[in-house]
Structure formats: C-alpha cells, structure tokens
Structures
1.
Amino acid sequence: MNKCCCNAKLKLIYSCSGAANTGEMADQISRKLAKEGYGNMTCLASVGAHISGFVESAKRADENITIDGCSVACAKKILEHIGVTPTKSYALTEMGVEKGKTPSNEEIISKISNKIKKDLPLKADQENNAEGDKNSGCSCCSC
Amino acid sequence: MKIEILGTGCPKCKKLHELAEEAVKELGASAEITKVTDINKIIDYGVMVTPALVIDGEVKVAGKISSKEEIIKWIEEKK
C-alpha cells in the first residue's frame, strides 16, 4: 500500500495466475515486477469477487497493469467488468510463450520480465518526475 | 450503522472524517464513526490508497475525499 494519499502514483499489477504454465508464469512475472519496484501487486480474484476495497482501489489507481498468460485475457476482462480499462495489458502468448509447452523456469521468467520492464517505468522514477505536481498541489502530509 | 475512515492520519483523512461527521449530523442518523489507522486492518479491506470511507463493511471510496453530498447519499442508501 502507498504510505499516504499523496506521495506516489498508485500503480497496481494484476496477474491472471491461471492453471496452465502461462498462468503460472504470469504470476511469477507479476511478483518479480512488484518486488523490483515496478508497481504493487494486488489480488485479481478479489476484484472478480467485487470486494469493494479492491474495486475502489482499482478505480482510483493511476495505472492498472494486467499480465495475462494467454490471449483469453481474463485479468484484463475482469478489470473491464468493473469499468476499468487497464493502462497496459500483456499476454505472454503474444510474447513468445506457448501455452502447455514453454517451461516455467527462471530463464523464461527473466526474459519476459525484461521485455515488460522496457515498457514500464519504475514507480520511484515516476514519483520523482511528479515532484513538481506534488509540491504545487499537495496539502496532504509531510512526506 | 458503522462508518469507518481508513487512513494513517494525514489531513485528507481528517477532512474525510469531518465530512462524515457533518453528514451524520445533518441527517440525524444513528451512526458510529471510527478512525482506522492500523495499516493491516486497512489492507484487510483491500484498500491500496487512503483515505477511504467504509459504511457497514463496504468500501465506498478510496484515495480521495468524497463530498458531503456523496456521503449523505451513501448513508441514506444504507438506512
């Protein structure tokens, strides 16, 4: 969670985490990106279950990023069901992964993660870039 | 009715609390308003950004100060 209401862009990452190798990889890639500071991973299932806190957070987020295993794009569609269009959405099968065939291992996870990272700025970099806005408009806290 | 204001104590959280109090007073509603500052309890609600306002367990808004009119509408819906 963000420390306070004004200090950061809220960038949420959702993974389909499906049963196939593709879902497994989507989950691992999402966790890796979150650990490396590309956003906060949050629960897609809770959004699908319409748990109000998750739904409202998705609606309020500056960016919602979906990482799906395949082109069925369940993560993307779940967000669309609550009226949120993902800022960016990825499907691993469109990035060289074959459903039911490509092994889920560290090499593939790193390779695909690196492709996504090229497309996603680090959260901290975005916050630094937003410094001007923060100083001019924020009366929220002393962060 | 139970109204909870989720937040770690920043001015926006305080403002939302004030507005909730005003809304309850204006409606003459019977409601208990509590502040939730424990980060684990906030996360349990799935709230990723504060302030947030919860009425009877349902998160009505997260990450912004809602207007008094909105809060009044939500309270009336729960009556």
Note: Residues 132-143 of chain A have pLDDT under 50 and may be disordered.
2.
Amino acid sequence: MAYSDQVIDHYENPRNVGKMDEKDAGVGTGMVGAPACGDVMRLQIKVSDEGVIEDAKFKTYGCGSAIASSSLVTEWVKGMTVDQAQQIRNTAISQELALPPVKIHCSVLAEDAIKAAINDYKSKQS
Amino acid sequence: MDIKQNFFQLYSLPRCYAVDLSQLQNRHRQLQRKFHPDRYVTATTADQRLAVQVTAYLNQAFKTLKNPVARGVYLLELAGLEPLAVSKTQMPADFLLQQISLRESIDDLPKSLNMDQDISELFNRLQQQYKAIEIEFANTYGNGELSKAEVAIRKLQFMERLEQQLQLQAEVLMELK
C-alpha cells in the first residue's frame, strides 16, 4: 500500500520525538494502544500557567501512519489552549495525512492519545 | 451439518477457553474428510455447493479455535462483545509502559554484544507473560468477568504482535551475521 507524501514526510522527519518528565505538574502524559495492530503511543504535553500548550513530545511504536498521526498532533497542539486541543478529531488528522480507510484507526489512536494527555494534565491540576 | 452452530458445537467441545487441541484436530480431520468436496463430484450441484461452504466454514472454525487470541476473541464475540474494536485504545498504563520497554529492548538488539542470549531471554520473557495473560483470561472469562476478560484478550493480542516483531527482528539479525 502506498503512503501519502504527508505520511512519508512525518515518518522520515518525525517532529517532537522524545520524552518529558511525567512527574512535572505541568506535564500531561497520555498512553494508548491499538490492539488490532499492536501499536503503542505515548504523547505528552507541557502546559503553561495560562493553560497554553508550550511543548509536545511523542514516542510511537507502530506503522508509518501511526507515527505520522502522532507527529502531526504534536505539531498542531503547540500554541493551542488545552480546550482547543481537546477538540482535535481523528477525521481532521486522517484528512490532513490522506490516510486510506484501513489506516483510520491510527488517527483514532492519536486523538485518544491527546485526550488522555489532557485528562492526565487536568487530573494533576485538581 | 448445520453451519449455524457455533464453532464449539461444531466440534462437540465445551464452550470454554481451555481447548483440547488434539481432540480439536481429530474432530476437524473427521469432518473435513466427511465433507471434502472431492467426495461430492457426482452429487447434485446444490450438495456440491454445500460441501464447499461447509469446508470453508470448517477451516475458519479450526483456525479460530486453534489460535489462543482468536479463540478468546471469539468467546467474547459469542457473548456479544467486540474486544478488538478500533475505539478500544485504553489499556492499563503499567501494561503499556511494559510494552514500550519491551519494544525498546527489541530495537536495542542490534547493539547487543551477546545477541543470541538476549534474543532467547526476550523470547522467554514474552512467553512467560503470554502464559500468565492466558491464565488471566481463562480465570476472568470463567468467572463471568467479561470486561476484565476483554482487557486480558487485548493484552494477549499485543503480546502476539510483539512476539511476531521479535521473530522478524531475530531473523534479520541472524541473516546479517
């Protein structure tokens, strides 16, 4: 199956690969896994006191589409407020990356990862 | 034969996770012989078509019951669940952390100074965990704790994928030697 140019670009030059200190109160960590393909994704956000996402990092063990989906999300969320990031939908991710139907689940994984990271951040604030 | 029977009924096996594999294999061979399309060359077109259908059904049933993950998924599907649905991305955090660290160990293998030993140790670790998760599934499913069983079968699916990846990596590394 042929990957789109957008997927190849993110796959060959993934943005924001890395890890942040998950114990930091301003860091939210989301970890999710797709049982159908065995892909595992960790996505982290660093939120400022004003509620703006200053930085994002990810590490994904999986196929090119899963890597590209998480890479794209980390690019998107930087500069967003937490509430804006909460609105990201997998359909926007799959559209941007021109994912074929069999790879839609990779974008679902990325949406769930950012949501899980936001939930983790919020639970630390309360 | 009624192809509306579930796979367990088809082989007269109890509907539970533990399956006697030699019994499964024997019953499968018997039924396969009985319904082999070659035996229906002189039969009516309808019977011929039925024999082909039954054979396909048998093959699917055998493949499903033989594989530990597919069998568990099938048991939960019979109970009306969909354990491997795309939307089910939430897994226990400690399990995912462990998955990441195992993936890292597989990725680090090319740098290993003691490769054969590291590979066989990893295989052993994966197999031990695999067995432990199978027990977790058998127990939770047996107790009717279906949502716990669902998590267990998803874990097992992750482990199966991981083992395939290790297999692939080991083959590549052996060829490079």
Note: The interface with chain A takes residues 83-84, 86-91, 93, 95-97, 99-100, 103, 154, 157-158, 160-162, 165 of chain B (CB under 8 Å).
